[in-house]
Amino acid sequence: MLLESVAGSCPEALKYVTVSGYISQFEYWPTFRYVSVSHSGAMSPVTSRKRISREESRAQTRQELLMAARELFARQGFEGASIDQITDAAGYTRGAFYSNFDTRESLMIALIEHCFAEDLAQLSRLGERPEAGFSGEGFQAFSASPDTDQTAHLIKMEFWMCAMRYPRIRAAYVQQQGQLRAAIARQVEAQAQALGLTLPVAAEDAAAVLIALKNGLDTQKLIQPQAFADGLYATMFRQLLRPDPPLTP
Predict the structure, then answer these.
(1) Domain 102-240, CATH 3.30.390.10 — does that match?
(2) DSSP character string of 18-85
(3) What UniProt keywords are attached to this protein's entry (predicted)?
(4) Which of 114, 127, 153, 213 has the largest CB neighbor count within 10 A?
């Protein structure tokens, strides 16, 4: 009865309720206004938080659903993670899911875009420091071992699998991969120019080789952590930038 009277007195939707001893706290959406309810039923304001807009609320919900899906897809695979599991992990309802995504495929596409955007942002930061480049500390950060974040590599493997099986996901993956390859090509070309070198192949081709090498070595590293030295990728990259004459077919 007390819950009904409190909820009915506030036009906003009740987000959650926690009960501890004789004090109940009700958080209302979207004002984040708290009230304390004494054992006698009297209500008084306790504290207030910054009001967030409906758009900010939806963005937060979307982000939390994406991160929950990222973990589940990495551990269980795309086919092994249901919408109910994703919403349960994120702490939302199916209604919240369908307010942001039409299907699991739509969610996977959004996750692909999110992860590639993070990679592009990292490359952009490298571009602001050409002295670091791919052969210095910036390169080491970009080519970090998968030991530091297995989920990141596992989810990328799931991207590849889905891209082979689902045409819509394939189209999104190809587009994002193309943007990443172009960004890496620009970095490789800038690094070669800074070192006064001539690339043995086109920068786009060099970028494709580097991506394939990174993905392959990371996969082997996950399965056999001691299979090769951590610096192998950097060594092979420097080999690509050796001042040798261009290769002939």
Answers:
(1) no
(2) EEETTEEEEEEETT-EEEEE-TT--EEEEEE-----HHHHHHHHHHHHHHHHHHHHHHH-TTT--HHH
(3) DNA-binding, Repressor, Transcription, Transcription regulation
(4) 153
Distance between CA atoms of residues 4 and 133, nearest Å: 61
Rg for the chain, CA atoms, rounded: 25
Dist. CA 244–CA 241, nearest whole Å: 8
Other residues' Cβ atoms within 10 Å of the Cβ of residue 231: 11
Cα gap 142→108, rounded to integer Å: 23
Which of 135, 181, 173, 137 has the alpha carbon at shortest distance from 156?
173
Residue with tokens 């309810």: 37
- Write out the two tokens for 182: 């172009």
User: What is the model's pTM?
Assistant: 0.71
Residue 108 half-sphere exposure toward CB, CA atoms < 13 A: 30
Number of CB atoms found within 10 A of residue 62's CB: 19
CA proximity to 63, closest of 14, 16, 118, 110 = 110
